[in-house]
Sequence to fold (310 residues):
Amino acid sequence: MSDADRFMTEAIALARENVRRGGRPFGAVLVMDGEVVAHGVNGVVETHDPTSHAELIAVRAAAIKRHSPILKGATMYASGHPCPMCLAAMRLAGITDIYYAYSNEDGAPFGLTSAPLYADLQKPLAEQQMNFAYRPVRPKGEEDIYDLWRKMQEG
Amino acid sequence: MSDADRFMTEAIALARENVRRGGRPFGAVLVMDGEVVAHGVNGVVETHDPTSHAELIAVRAAAIKRHSPILKGATMYASGHPCPMCLAAMRLAGITDIYYAYSNEDGAPFGLTSAPLYADLQKPLAEQQMNFAYRPVRPKGEEDIYDLWRKMQEG
Fold:
């Protein structure tokens, strides 16, 4: 079995254990330099947290462990097709190698697909099903937060 | 001052306090039924976690507090334009009313913009700057994870 298949088998095994504990069928394994640095399973049922997705948890755990928000060169093995939140989380961390074992098409008959959310989020923001608005409040008598941040950066 | 401006002023005040503590200039306040149910600030510098964004933290905190991953009817007041990860997190939670005080254009001169990531993520997946591949591993001798999940759902 190739290393890639072995890591994917591990992600699927995590998903299976999670289902047996009453969770959703998603697991993920994050690999750097040929070794597993972190993993995650979907914890939405248990925690009620809608952001408790396998890949996001693995990214968080790896970053905290390595003391770096950037995980360039890491490879994600996810049992299911990553949702838009997890994909963006991986990209924020500089992760560009992503494999998944179950596609949105595989998951659709089970209601396990993020395809509708992808379709909506790929539209221009103004056309999406939401009210997303610029409200440029600038509290009087207070320093602008971005100016303040720049000053702090410059020390 | 309108309620909306008051909540936004609070989000900006959280961002300002966060900068004074050495963090990034982002704060968010989540409101339900006219009251703040949760808030968050960017914790990337302190925790190294690249997913530690103000809005995502507010969504998580509200969902855990209310024992529900769905926060329909909630309104997010974010100091900065939400990034794609946080936007998707809000949509996963059913949040469709989102206001921000600083646009990506406001933030660009400070390097505080998620516009490049939005531009990339809005392309078809195959055209994005990453290797995103289907690897349909199906471990032999083990029950399919989605079939198992359906069985568990049916009790």
Remarks:
- The CA atoms of residues 51 and 85 of chain A lie 8 Å apart.
- The mean pLDDT of chain A is 97.
- DSSP finds seven helices and five strands in chain A.
- The longest helix of chain A spans residues 3-20.
